[in-house]
Amino acid sequence: MDITGGDPLYRIHGTASAGRAVELRYTPTVADMAEGLRPYGRTSAGRRQRLLFVLTGLVGPGYAAVLVAQGGGYVGSAVALCVVGLFSWAFVLFGHRIMAGTTRGLLAASGEYRAVVDGGGVTIDSAQGTVHLRWSALSCYAETPATFMLFSGDKRVLGGALLPKRGLADPGEQDVLRALLDGKLKRI
Predict the structure, then answer these.
(1) Which of 47, 56, 134, 169 lies 20 to 30 angstroms, CA to CA, from 163?
(2) pLDDT tens-digit map of 61-78
């Protein structure tokens, strides 16, 4: 007889491999995602990405100024370089919000999330399916006033898990979750 009712998260939660498991229930929002993605700029992959946009934001308008100073028919090119520079600076300053906005449809379709964090990793269940991330797939995490954001170890792709603090049943579980994350991941 299956006492779990077929619920895979119950089995994972009930057999937490290293100490206590923490469960969260939440419906993520774009604002949660934007807040969680803000610390991405402090990761090595985020710094590399940001450097590219900073250089483009500096070199584009700088080269445009040189073209205008030389005179001639380069005004169209100079304007294009300035626009590219402005878009680069916009991404440097507001990239986390832009990236969060791209998740709007996915978040709306997924509904309520249920996440379990334990010694084996993070398991997130939603209407779209269940995802299990082992600790080896994650490299670091960041804590913001309202979220814990876990980042993947893949330097080419931004991935991970968003865990809003409001999803915890008891505010005291923040300390348990923080201790579990500190034991498994590097904090940024």
Answers:
(1) 47
(2) 888 888 888 876 777 888
Find tokens 């803000």 and name the residue: 38
DSSP string for residues in the chain: --TTTT-HHHHHHHT-SSS--EEEEE---HHHHHHHHGGGGGSHHHHHHHHHHHHHHHHHHHHHHHHHHH-SS-HHHHHHHHHHHHHHHHHHHHHHHHHHHTTHHHHHHH-SEEEEEETTEEEEEETTEEEEEEGGGEEEEEE-SSEEEEEES-SSS--EEEEEGGGBSSTTHHHHHHHHHHHHSEE-
Contact 116, 122 (CB under 8 A): yes
Sign of CA dihedral 55, 99, 187, 152: negative
- Do strands 160-164 and 186-187 pair parallel, antiparallel, or not at all (unpaired)? unpaired
Q: Are the CB atoms for 55 and 85 separated by under 8 Å?
A: no
For the beta carbon of residue 102, count every other beta carbon within 10 angstroms.
Answer: 10
Q: Which of 170, 152, 143 lies closest to 25 in space, CA to CA?
A: 170
pLDDT digits (tens, 9 = 90+) for 136-181: 999 889 999 999 999 887 766 667 889 999 999 998 899 999 999 9
pTM over cut 0.90: no
Using only C-alpha atoms, what is the Rg of the chain? 21
Q: 């300390």: which residue's tokens? A: 175
